[in-house]
Write a sequence for this structure.
């Protein structure tokens, strides 16, 4: 346990927003539905072994995702490219921050090999923010998509990209050279909380990235995700959903924020399953083709099912 706490503290050492270390009495108690059951399925060990052999990183591990046991047990994972150090310092995130290592030119091949060995049919590729790179790492995304398709021609690929701030035009140009099946970028939280939760990022820019890609490639579904429990109100969430729809986002995920450690932003509230159902219905009524709303929902959780359902919704709409 001491090693885990030390790791969390080292990740957050350089965050500019000062977060007081909380005592156990200051932590909002978790409701019954917040409990996570860990799996000891041998498939998890097998997948982790392969990832270490290929020197690959998953956001499942780096971001301490609560669904890691379920996803790893099914042999699925969201791969995080371009290293495990982010140039941003978001106060909700458990990914390490600092000066990134140089890009590994062999990573696209290693990634494609690992995905082929796992015999995946759907894969999500995400990354840390790489503000040190001229294109934000977009060309590396392109190379990874190309390598994966060469090894696994039938696979569906979703990219969960950073915001490419100040590099949007060149980034979209690079990714357009090897298009994914789903283009995902998380808005993460409401506009009022950006200064606190996402220093260095811009709410309006994230919306612009999603709409700019959609205008250039209208046939490719766009997707975004929101965390709740950081201090927003229900009306804030509804406004964020409206903003996403106004920028032509097709799919959305809504899930509960869980503080990775006492060194991160605290949980301000826990939404009940009923509240998630109500927010999900509001999103559906707004016209999203697919909505995943629930306590344990994360951006990549059941991404394959979301994409399949989105395809069916589009096909149904075109038929009628």
């Amino acid at each position: 346990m001491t090693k885990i706490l030390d790791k969390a503290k080292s990740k957050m050492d350089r965050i500019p927003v000062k977060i007081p270390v909380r005592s156990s009495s200051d932590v909002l108690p978790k409701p019954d539905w917040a409990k996570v059951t860990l799996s000891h399925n041998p498939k998890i060990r097998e997948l982790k072994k392969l990832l270490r052999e290929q020197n690959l990183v998953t956001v499942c591990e780096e971001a301490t995702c609560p669904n890691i046991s379920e996803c790893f047990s099914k042999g699925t994972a969201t791969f995080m490219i371009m290293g495990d150090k982010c140039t941003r310092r978001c106060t909700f995130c458990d990914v390490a921050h600092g000066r990134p290592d140089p890009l590994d030119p062999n990573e696209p091949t290693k990634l494609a090999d690992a995905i082929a060995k796992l015999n995946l049919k759907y894969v999500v590729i995400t990354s840390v923010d790489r503000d040190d790179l001229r294109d934000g790492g977009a060309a590396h995304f392109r190379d990874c998509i190309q390598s994966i398709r060469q090894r696994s021609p039938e696979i569906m690929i979703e990219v969960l990209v950073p915001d490419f701030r100040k590099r949007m035009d060149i980034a979209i140009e690079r990714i357009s050279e090897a298009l994914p099946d789903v283009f995902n970028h998380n808005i993460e939280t409401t506009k009022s909380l950006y200064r606190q939760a996402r220093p260095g990022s811009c709410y309006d820019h994230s919306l612009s990235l999603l709409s700019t890609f959609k205008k250039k490639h209208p046939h490719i579904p766009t997707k975004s995700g929101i965390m709740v429990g950081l201090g927003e109100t229900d009306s804030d969430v509804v406004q964020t959903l409206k903003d996403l729809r106004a920028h032509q986002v097709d799919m959305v995920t809504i899930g509960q924020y869980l503080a990775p450690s006492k060194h991160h932003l605290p949980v301000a509230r826990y939404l009940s399953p009923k509240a998630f159902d109500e927010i999900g219905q509001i999103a559906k009524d707004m016209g999203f083709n697919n909505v995943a709303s629930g306590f344990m929902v994360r951006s990549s959780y059941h991404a394959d099912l979301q994409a399949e359902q989105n395809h069916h919704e589009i096909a149904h709409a075109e038929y009628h």
In short: The domain at 41-319 is CATH 3.20.20.70 (TIM Barrel). Residues 303-319 form the longest helix (17 residues). Confidence is low (pLDDT under 50) at residues 8-18. The chain has one domain: 41-319.
